[in-house]
Amino acid sequence: MNGLRTRLAALAAVCGLLAGCGLDSNITLPLNVLPGSLPAPPDLAGVRIVVGSKDFTEQIVLGHITEFALAAAGADVVDLTNIQGSNSARQALLTGDIDVQWEYTGTAWVSYLGQTEPIPDERLQFEAVRELDRANGLEWLDFAPLNNTYAFGMRREVAERLGITTISQLAEAVTRDPALGVFCVETEFVSRDDGFPGVQQAYGFRAAPANMKIFGAGAIYQALANGACTFGEITSTDGRTLALDLTVLVDDRKFFPQYNAAPVVRTDFLAAHPGVRDVLAPLAERLDNGTMQRLSAQVDVYGADPVEVARDWLVREGFIRLP
Fold first, then answer.
1. What is the pTM for the complete model shown?
2. Fewer CB within 10 Å, N or C, the chain?
């Protein structure tokens, strides 16, 4: 909650300068939109809904997508995206400071629910998280194909030349020619059980310590593109993979935990406003890794406003209309 309180305190200071704006509303967004293919359930008309998100690009875009969709359905939407830290965002939902946010199954399973053994199947992982979190008064709406998990990336031309599309093929290539096994990874990934030690064991290959190059998360993408390493630890939905023409290798043995995104609401709020499920379900169906890579790249690579990126995607997909 500290991140949320800091945000609210900062907003209160700003509002004091802006003649009487209160904590019941956040920065004004251009939410004057009309429904397209999305439904406009009567139970949402005029209902105040506070939408939250964590503080990284993908989450902020998802938050704004949700805001526009609910506004088109007739809700009175309040923006509280960009909450600092997963735990602060989670606490804001539990305490009712926000009403809906997108969360990841793997994050909830390990970080919030205290489980140590991920479930490889996406649907089974989601159902297990949904069932456990109901005891916390939270309801997970159906998950999206969007799965923001660990992955290995390669330059596309190198992947095509070597014929590598999966981590099994990576393992075969490195075993056959150890000189290929140059990896760019983060410090934490080197030692985590669900990181490099575990993936080597699961896929049966071994990289020489001298071939391990340690970078910050953002620097790995550029290091890959510059040829500093053959393989790099990335995330599967990052827009820089498109901008730098990188290939995301398939985790064909499903070693890495599943991090499918899904909207989460409090159980009592959903019971009072079931139309939220109807509005958000079509969005979850359409949001996959490729879509999020493109949306994130518009923000992180080309400097677009995430509000406009979210709105324009909804318009292109026919979900909403502009007046």
1. 0.86
2. C
